[in-house]
């Protein structure tokens, strides 16, 4: 990754306020933080939940449009809710449904701190993604971030001008997902591409592609794939992240050198938390019968 001597060139690294100043991009936050940034996934279309999550203290929040029926409108509102309720301390990133330029454009124009793009398998695909995500001269992203300023960590006062400058400076992260056997084979071509901020590893789909099952495991072919991606991330100064939904996975992925981990989700946390409270209440009220579902 970056060395201490390189921090002035890291996108979004504060140039004033000393070492304790709040990072202004997720890339700068990863560079500064010794361990991985910890995040949660939002799958429920609710600005109220987004506001609550913003107060918890996660480093980042992944808004999942790929596997959840979230519209561009509610997703934009959730981005702004997270930034406002966390006072810019929690970075919203959007996992878009596909490589389509319309999804990339909508997600970036929300003012999100970055995007995650699923199922990137080769150089041709990643080049197309970067072209749609970057403003000229590095790409062909259309200009129109009218609502993006509400995603700025310090608030919307800087307006479209500040957002545009941040985007041109590389402070908006682009994370292709490697989650297939083909993607692992082409990992160096993908990771080394200019404009790629890092990689998000999709463990479930990667394991399925390798003929395995489950979210995690110690099979040599899977461990070799993770090692290859992480080694290439170190070689090219790119940040690697993934899902890590239990303590063992968090420990393993941290040891792998990953720098951002999704460790929970809104739906699973809501379900588990309510179940715990109900069980506690039932134990204190032994005569109460729970309904049969």
UniProtKB/TrEMBL annotation:
One of its GO terms (cellular component) is cytoplasm. Residues 48-269 form the HpcH/HpaI aldolase/citrate lyase domain. Pfam families: HpcH_HpaI. Keywords: Lyase, Metal-binding. It comes from the Eukaryota. Residues 1-22 are annotated as: Disordered. GO terms for molecular function: aldehyde-lyase activity; metal ion binding. InterPro entries: Aldolase/citrate-lyase_domain, HpcH-HpaI_aldolase, Pyrv/PenolPyrv_kinase-like_dom, Pyrv_kinase-like_dom_sf. This is HpcH/HpaI aldolase/citrate lyase domain-containing protein.
């Amino acid at each position: 990754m970056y060395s201490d001597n390189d921090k002035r060139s890291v996108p979004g690294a504060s140039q004033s306020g000393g070492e304790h100043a709040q990072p202004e991009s997720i890339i700068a936050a990863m560079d500064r933080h010794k361990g991985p940034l910890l995040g949660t996934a939002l799958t429920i279309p609710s600005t109220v939940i987004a506001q609550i999550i913003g107060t918890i203290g996660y480093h980042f929040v992944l808004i999942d449009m790929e596997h959840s029926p979230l519209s561009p409108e509610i997703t934009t509102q959730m981005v702004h809710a997270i930034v406002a309720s966390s006072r810019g301390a929690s970075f919203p990133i959007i996992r878009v449904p596909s490589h389509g330029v319309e999804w990339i454009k909508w997600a970036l124009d929300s003012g999100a701190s970055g995007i995650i793009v699923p199922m990137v398998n080769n150089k041709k695909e990643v080049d197309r993604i970067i072209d749609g995500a970057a403003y000229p001269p590095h790409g062909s992203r259309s200009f129109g971030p009218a609502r993006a300023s509400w995603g700025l960590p310090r608030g919307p006062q800087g307006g479209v001008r500040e957002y545009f400058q941040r985007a041109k400076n590389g402070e908006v992260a682009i994370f292709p997902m490697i989650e297939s056997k083909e993607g692992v084979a082409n990992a160096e071509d993908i990771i080394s591409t200019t404009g790629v901020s890092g990689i998000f590893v999709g463990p479930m789909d990667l394991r399925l592609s390798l003929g395995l099952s489950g979210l995690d495991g110690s099979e040599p072919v899977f461990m070799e794939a993770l090692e290859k991606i992480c080694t290439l991330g170190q070689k090219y100064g790119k940040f690697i992240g993934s899902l890590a939904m239990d303590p063992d996975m968090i420990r393993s992925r941290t040891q792998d050198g990953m720098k951002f981990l999704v460790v929970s989700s809104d739906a699973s946390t809501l379900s588990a938390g309510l179940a715990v409270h109900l069980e506690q209440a039932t134990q204190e009220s032994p005569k109460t019968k729970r309904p049969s579902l």
